[in-house]
Amino acid sequence: MNQVTNRQAVCDALIGHGKINRNIVVLCSDSRGSASLSTFAEQLPKQFVEVGIAEQNIVSIAAGLASCGKRPFVASPACFLSTRSMEQVKVDVAYSGTNVKLIGISGGISYGALGMTHHSNQDIATIASIPGMRVYLPSDRFQTGKLLEYLIKDDAPAYVRIGRNAVEDIYSENEIPFKMDKATIIREGSDVTIIACGEMVSAAAKAGDILAAQGISARVLDMYCVKPIDEDSIIKSCKETKAIVTIEEHCAIGGMGSMVSQIVGRTNPVPIINMTLPDSPVIAGKSGEVFDHYGLNADGIVKTVLNLECFRKELSYV
Q1: Are residues 293 and 205 located together in one domain of the fold?
Q2: Residue among 181, 274, 260 nearest 224 (CA)
Q3: Alpha-carbon span 119 to 133, nearest angstrom
Q4: 172 part of a folded domain
Q5: Quick one: which of 123, 180, 270, 309 could link to 82 by a disulfide (CB 3.0–4.6 Å)?
Q6: Count of alpha carbons within 13 Å of 259, Cβ hemisphere only?
Q7: What is the pLDDT of residues 231-261, one digit of tens each?
Q8: Looking at residues 285-298, what average pLDDT do you find?
Q9: Contact 8, 53 (CB under 8 A)
């Protein structure tokens, strides 16, 4: 099992590029430890700014630095960064078109035991609703590194949600299929398409294997690019498979599943199920326990697919 967290992959990328490009600046809100950025602060102290617990200020400071030619990366807990500083993100970053990259650390239910105050189950909906903001949820450390390479070099605002814990590798160091703003096909399939983002990609990949053993061919898409979302891959899947199942570490309103459903309904309607966290306070507990409680795991995906009417009819004859 991989022990390297996605936040460590962010730090490694920023250190590597920061030593070459001195305009790269990292800002933290008393969160360098949580963000795994202590090493960056130690190696590049003149490119590190500790703002303290002041999420609105940190975004505005980053926007000011960007307007002076710096390339700021803000690392702060996703639950606070996406809510407390929404106005600053909307006005100082997106509306002004400043080159600020927001890294929402410990996203989703990473702070599981701390409950609703520390869960960020609405951050996709919040940030994606702002014109000019891009939203990314990389699935593993290798994809995180590739994404950061692109974001370090481009000049547009973006929000990246990173979980707290190490996740299973989806890709390998020598094989990282990656195209900016295009979903990655984890496995091909002709019966059903499973679309996942972030930590849920691992569960989707496992579900694809289980379904294959039961005679159902599942296409699995890693939709790390939630905004701009890869419409072409979704439309293609609507035409080539019988149903769509989405799964995400987010509430039911305004997340990736909602976006996929809009595209499916507008272009080529097929049965679609959105697997999400509930529209209510999520139970407290370790993230794995919470996922299992709500069925956001491989078994839950398999059960959802098998309960689709098109597959109930087919399997009844097997």
Answers
A1: yes
A2: 181
A3: 21
A4: no
A5: 123
A6: 24
A7: 999 999 999 999 999 999 999 999 999 999 9
A8: 95
A9: no
Residues 242 and 151 in one domain: no
Q: Is residue 166 part of a domain?
A: no
> Sign of the C-alpha dihedral, residues 223, 294, 103, 56?
positive
Residue 176 lies in a domain: no
- For residues 128 and 28, membership in a common domain is answered with yes
**What's the one-letter identity of residue 264?**
V
Clarify whether residues 76 and 135 are in a common domain.
yes
Residues 211 and 300 in one domain: yes
The pTM assigned to this predicted structure is 0.95
What is the rounded CA–CA span in Å between residue 297 and residue 258? Answer: 19
Instruction: List helix spans (H) across the chain.
Output: 6-18, 38-43, 55-67, 78-81, 86-88, 123-128, 141-153, 200-213, 231-240, 256-267, 287-294, 298-306, 309-315
Could you tell me the residue range of the domain that residue 59 belongs to?
6-161
DSSP state of 198: T
Q: Does 178 map to a domain?
A: no
3 token code pair: 């022990």
Please tell me whether residues 156 and 205 are part of one structural domain: no
Q: Which residues of 258-267 are buried (b: 16+ CB within 10 A; e: fewer)?
A: bbbbebbeee
Tokens of 290: 């919470």
CATH number assigned to the domain comprising residue 255: 3.40.50.920
Total domains present in the chain: 2
Distance CA 203, CA 260 (A): 19
Kind and range of the H or E run holding 184:
strand 184-187
For residue 71 the two structure tokens come to: 């390339």
Nearest alpha-carbon partner for 107 in 81, 71, 141: 81
Shared domain check, 301 and 268: yes
Please say whether the beta carbons of 186 and 236 come within 8 A: no
